[in-house]
Amino acid sequence: MKRQAKQNRGVRRREFLKLGGAAAAAALSGLRPRPSWGAADSGPIRIGVLGPLTDFTGRDIQRAAQIAAEEINTAGGILGRQIQLFSGDSEGVPEKAIQAIQQLAVRDQVHAIVGGFRSGAVLALVPYVARFKTPFIITGAASPDIMTPVGENYAANKYLFRAWVNSERQALSLAFVCRDIFKAQVGWSRFAIDAENLKWARDYADVLKGKLREYKLDLVYETNHDPATTDFTPIFKAAESAKAQVLLEIISNQAGFVIVKQWRDQRVPMALAGNNNPSYLISSFWKDTEGKCQYELSAYTKAPLSKRSVPFWDKFEQRFGETPFYTGTGAYDAVNLIKVAAEAAKSMDRDALVAALEKVDYEGVIGRIRFDKLHEAVTGPDDVPVSYGQWIGEKKKVAIWPEKFAQGKYQPPAWLK
Amino acid sequence: MSDPQKFSPEDRLGGRGNGLRQYWPVLLVPVIGVIGWFGSQPVTITLLYGATWATYAVGYDMFSGFSGRVNLGYAMFPATAAYVTAVLSARLKIAPALSIPAGIAAALLLAVVVGALTLRITGIYFALSTSIIPLALFQLTHVFGKFLGGEEGIWGVPPIFTDPRLDLVVVLLILGASMCFALWYVRSKAGLVLRAIQGGELTAQALGLNTFRFLFVSLLASAVIGATAGAYLAHFQMLVAPEILHIITTLQIITFAQIGGPGTIVGPVLGSFLLVNLNEYLRAWTDLRLFVYFATLVLLLRFSPNGVLVPIARAVRRLVQRSGPPSGPERS
Amino acid sequence: MQTFLTILVFGLATSGIYALMAVGVALIYGVGRVINFAHGAFYTLGAYLAYFYATAFGMNWWVASLLAMLSVGFLAAVFDRLLIEPLREQEILVWIMTFAFAFAIRELIVLLFGARPYSIPAFAPGSVSVLGQAIAAQRLLVVAVSGLAIGSLWIFLSSARLGKALRAVALNRTGAHLVGIPVRMAHATVMAISAGLAALAGIIISPINVLTPDMGLEPLLMSFTIVILGGIGSLRGSLVAALLVGYAGALVSFLWSPQLVTFMALVMVFGVLIFRPSGLFGLAVERA
């Protein structure tokens, strides 16, 4: 009886050890020593770079931040401390974005973060920014909804800033183009809108629609496409049936290559204009589309908006062999903003940084930057960081709008005659 | 579909059904709770995800691991619960105390419909038909993008706690309860019937068993388990992303279950924690991370296709036997 | 009329790509009894390799494409022999293995090429005017090439010795083994052929759109729905279903919205699975 009981205990012990061993192995495999909580008061200034870092839309965030950090470090750093950059790749996807911010804030303990490209990802990050209280300067995501929490719950969300122009303001620019170039210069008034099915683009389209109505221009067709679309033919056909004269595109990803190639291949009988992110890549887009982007009128950012604009462009192009994407210009300004704010506050304390940023008046690459009550960048009364240019040749985009920077007149596509 | 003959009685941890002893595996939960509570925040967060996936794996295993019917669309249950609670609480501002049960109820309803439609189909066609549903739901989130978030999902889901450690307590309670239920269920008559079905459905029917009824109830239970974890995920993550409806999610759950050791309930739990931790551990490798992760999966599958649980258990047992007292017959 | 013509040509091009993919899936299941979740990865890898060979070694696009197809086919055969063969008995393990492999390939592509999109120049440049409608010459090339490839496959399977051997294995593996057909070789061969066709599909359509690491997901999904619709294991079924789905999709795209196409396909497939799992041409299935 006793031996039986002993054997039972032995068996039980063995089983417990088996389980315990396996459990400990499983759980401990993630254990790390507990780091001291809170960003350091001495040592390097840690700045996080977050975004879809391997995609063309996000890689320039990192590159531009690098240029800014190097410039600042050579000049003595921020408050005498050198900048150290940490990267978090969001892959443009909300789930990965929240993992990235957790990594940057908790593991790498950054003092501030610059970046953010996809509105969906950044919207998901808003409660995490509040939780970690890490100043986050957005360099690309455009949906207006991102900044409304700053107004709704200032105490929690004051760490959020946007150093870029939101989709509402971008839509205003495109609406001006429709009125002042297409209607006034060419005589076209029938427009179609095709926005990709993402929040920022839907927001953009809503504002654009309102403006077209206000300017008494006709919106004859409106649609959305899946961001992963590989064939725009049905949309072209529908816009054609509605007798549109201009197709306004609102695209942020690789579909921008596809729409342009197919538009040209099919000789779609209307102009193509709008926001096409790949089209910002002045050094490579013409070649990548075999010149099929000719006649497209799309947004881009090269304009001498401030004393910093052209030098930064040239430096970037010299270093990386390509012109910067707009997230790059945003990131360059953002890192410099952190320096300016830290020096004004004489500290890296988060709340002090926030207070200093709110009072900042800085001439960035995108023009004069100040922040309004919702921490949106106000870039001066006339300055619009987004201008519109038409492709005429490899690496050649002729500025068409704003008219004060225009280098030429808009040319309708050759096959429309 | 694991081979029941490959597991000898010693291998099936927790012993056969005598009283409380069969619930030994549930002790994992407090162990992990302690590690998560006192560990650093990255550890807590990793365990949070690990426990969530482990619960999914338990739900998956209790149905598919025992009956042999592969539910290739399992993710539809946590996903439906997550989306419903997210839409209700984030968009319609309904309190989580109501939206979470609503989410679970929605998933249960889905399980009823899916079970009624697909359980009578056998073999590979069952797996294929169940796989279609999350894919169709994925499409719906995009078609109704404005309301269901489309590619970007639903953000701003209100959290229940601000401290991840408290979230971990809740998730571990869910995991523990699920494990208790599953362990009880598979050792009951129902579990026996499921195993009989795996051995041969027609034979089981010839014995007079109403296989449909057992499969149906088991599917519902499995759905509720996954749904509970899924609904809570929406709140602690403060986000529901459509990736949860991808076939990849279910395949990951199946992989965790397979690598852990299918048909054991505790195997999938261990597999989940192991692989989620592996993924985190590899973060230091940045660029190479995912490649190494999947390459590791490939190797694990190739060389330990029936899961790592059994070899680990055998190895530990051998270690203990060498140091412990000599044993006579192990069981009565 | 214009729209009708457009639908005709575009539907044909889409069906061609689907057919190339679906036929591969059907073959692998028919002969190897494997559901290959890595099929989309072969499609993607083919396109990237063609780009790589052409730009890194300055090869002519046609040569680069051929080499890419052969590379992918070879890789697939090795994959089958080393990683799938030992697990073939347990279906679910094979599924997980193909899925893990697919992702390993995807991550490898991201490692080597980055996540940025690549635009490829068309093999057949310019546009052609077909009855007043301007169509990219590349699309017509897609129709021609896919037709040619499938035709060749058909002839191969019906007349060539190896082709007949493959069909034998599909019909009765044990019987084929008994008459001396090397069954494991047959499995690897069919994997190579299918992967090669998938690679071809990826290569030939990519000039019309763009290369991204996830470009293979949608074709993977569509090829599975087509195979189920046609009847798993039936080649003829896959071809007919490819045309059906290609044209149904084109109609839905043009008359409603392109975003509904996948949903439509899934509903079709679900209906088939519930009411007639054997599909159009498959063998009858027993029900519980």
Give a structural overview:
The complex is a heterotrimer of chains A (417), B (332) and C (288). By secondary structure, chain A is of the alpha/beta class. Helix content of chain A is 44%, strand content 19%. In chain A, strands 7-6-8-9-10-14-15 form a 7-stranded mixed sheet, with helices on both faces. A 5-stranded parallel sheet of chain A has the order 2-1-3-4-5, sandwiched between helices. Residues 4-16 and 327-332 of chain B have low confidence and may be disordered. In chain B, helix 2 (41-67) packs across helix 11 and helix 11 (247-260) packs across helix 12 (266-281). Chain B is globular and about 50 Å long. In chain B, 69% of the residues lie in helices and 1% in strands. Chain B has a two-stranded antiparallel ribbon. Chain C has 288 residues and is mainly alpha-helical. Helix content of chain C is 73%, strand content 3%. Chain C contains 11 helices and 2 strands. In chain C, helix 3 runs antiparallel to helix 8 and helix 6 packs across helix 8. Chains in contact: A-B, A-C, B-C. At the A-C interface, strand 7, helix 9 and helix 10 of A face helix 1 and strand 2 of C.
Outline of chain A, from the CA principal axes? globular
Q: SSE string of chain A, helix = H, strand = E?
A: HEHEHEHEHHEHEHEHEHEHEHHHEEEEE
Measured between the Cα atoms of the first and last residue of chain A, the distance is: 104 Å
Structural class of chain A: alpha/beta
Describe the main β-sheet of chain B briefly: 2 strands, antiparallel
Count the E strands of chain B: 2
Provide mean pLDDT of chain B, rounded: 85
- Largest binding interface between chains: A-B, 57 and 64 residues
- Provide mean pLDDT of chain A, rounded: 87
Specify the helix fraction band of chain A. 40-55%
Low-confidence stretches of chain B: 4-16, 327-332
Number of strands of chain A: 15
The helix/strand order of chain B is: HHHHHHEHHHHEHHHH
Structural class of chain B: mainly alpha
The number of helical runs of chain A is: 14
Q: Note the main sheet of chain A.
A: 7 strands, mixed
Strand order of the largest sheet of chain B: 1-2
Gyration radius of chain B, in Å:
20 Å
Cα gyration radius of chain A (Å) = 25 Å
